[in-house]
Amino acid sequence: MRAFLWILLIGAVVVVLGVLFQAFSIAAYARGAGDGALDAHGGMSLVVHIGQLLVVIGAIGAFWRNWPAVGLAVLFLVVSLGQLFALGDNETPGGWVNGLHGLLALVLLLWGAWYASVAARQLGLRSSPGAAGGA
Is 86 helix (H, G, I), strand (E, B) or coil? Predict the structure, then answer.
């Protein structure tokens, strides 16, 4: 189970860092940075999708027989695919579906951060809330 938690943690960190890089590169492109920024955005998508697959594999392995948690991992995969397919025609003005692509990227960023937190806590890399001593 620890191996699957590590897979989950690594995948989640890849998703979080990758989505942040993609947000930066697409914003740079929108502000005139040129095709290199768009290429960087697209190139990072493969890395992010590999991270998403690692999250799903890690979560299914780590939480096997906890069917709500396994279902949540499957839903993560469905939302990941939905985000990929929510990319509309970039050449035509008024492509509102691209907004859904960006919104789902934010959802996946937050979801990935949550998975990273869960995995780190279960691996003992960080304490659970309320575990620290205090007055």
Answer: coil
